[in-house]
Amino acid sequence: MLVLVNNSFFFEFIINALHECLNELNIIHEIIYEDNFNDTDIYLLCTCHEKRQLPRRYIAYNYEQFTTDKIWHPKIFINLKNAELVFDYSLENIKVLKNYDINAQFLPLGYHKSMEYDNNDNNNDKTIDFFFTGSINNYRHNKLLYPLKNIYHDYKDRLVIYSYNCWGNDLKKICSNTKIGLNIHYNSGNCILEIARIIILLANKVLVISEYSSDKWYDNKYKSIINFFENDNYSIDCINLLQKYNSQEVERRYQELITNYKYIDYVKEIIHLIKDL
C-alpha cells in the first residue's frame, strides 16, 4: 500500500494536492499524519532531509535546494540513496544528485484546486499592497525589504512582512487581502525558483514578483504569469507593478494557471514508476 506522510506544515499543501491527484487517477493509497510506520507499506515523504526516523520502504520527494552554497549533512544524501524512488521538483537538483549516484525523477509542482482558499475572491478593495514571508537575512533585508520599508514608512499596514513562517489560517487571511506577493532568495549561489511559496499566491489570485533563479525550466515556464525583477533596485519594479495592478490581469494569470499548470498532468507522467514498486 502506498502511504502519503503528511508530517510537516511546510509540505502539507503539497501532500494534500498529491493525495487529490492520486484519487483522481484511481490510485489506491492512504494518508497519515504521524511517523507511524510498518515494514510492508511504502511511504512517500517530503521530509527525508530532516532528522526523523525513516520507514523501511519509502519514496523521497525532495523540495530542498541542493544547488546553492549551503553545506548539507552527508546523511541527507544517504537517506535519498536508500529510497526506493526519488522525486525532485527541480531539474537542477537532479543534476546535483547524479553526482551522488542518485537517480531522481522530475516531478515539478503545479496547480491544484486544493491550494485555493475559501475566500478566493478577486476584489479591488485589497488593503495590503505587498506581502513577504520568510526568514530575514542581510541579503533579503538590504536588497528588497529595507528600500520598500522606507517607501512605506507612513503606510506600514500596506506592507506586511512575516519573518517567521506564515501558513494555514494566517496565510489564508493575508492572501485574501493582498495585491502582490514578493519572492526573493535566501541562500547564495545557484538558487531554484521558490515555487512552493509562489504557487499558493498565484492560486489565490495574488500577483507575484520574483528574483530570477538559476532554474531555467521554472523561470521560462512561469514568465507569463509572474513578474521578474529587472532593476537593481527591486523597489522600483515593485512600485511599477503596483501602479499597473488591475483585476483583469489578476484574472488572466489565474485562468492561465489553472489551465496550463495542472499538477495532475505532472503526476500522470510519473505514476507508472509508483505502480512498478
Secondary structure layout plus pairing:
Elements: E1 2-5, H1 12-24, E2 29-32, E3 42-45, E4 58-62, H2 74-81, E5 85-88, H3 91-98, E6 105-106, E7 128-133, H4 138-151, E8 159-162, H5 168-175, E9 178-183, H6 195-203, E10 207-210, H7 216-222, E11 227-228, H8 234-244, H9 247-260, H10 263-275
Give an overview in words.
The protein is α/β, with parallel strands linked by helices and 277 residues long. The chain has two domains: 123 residues, Rossmann fold, CATH 3.40.50; 147 residues, Rossmann fold, CATH 3.40.50.2000. The radius of gyration is 19 Å and the shape is globular.
List keywords for this structure.
6-stranded parallel sheet, Rossmann fold, 5-stranded parallel sheet, globular, 2 domains, 11 strands, alpha/beta, 277 residues
If classified by CATH, what would the architecture of the largest domain be? 3-Layer(aba) Sandwich
Question: What is the overall number of helices?
Answer: 10
Which sheet architecture does the biggest sheet show? 6 strands, parallel
Helix-strand category: alpha/beta
What is the residue-mean pLDDT, rounded to a whole number? 93
- Report the CATH topology name of the largest domain: Rossmann fold
Question: How many domain units?
Answer: 2
CATH homologous superfamily (4th level) name of the largest domain? Glycogen Phosphorylase B
Segments where pLDDT lies below 50 for 5+ residues? none
Strand content: 15-25%
Determine and state the CATH class of the largest domain: Alpha Beta
Order of helices and strands: EHEEEHEHEEHEHEHEHEHHH
- Helicity level: 25-40%
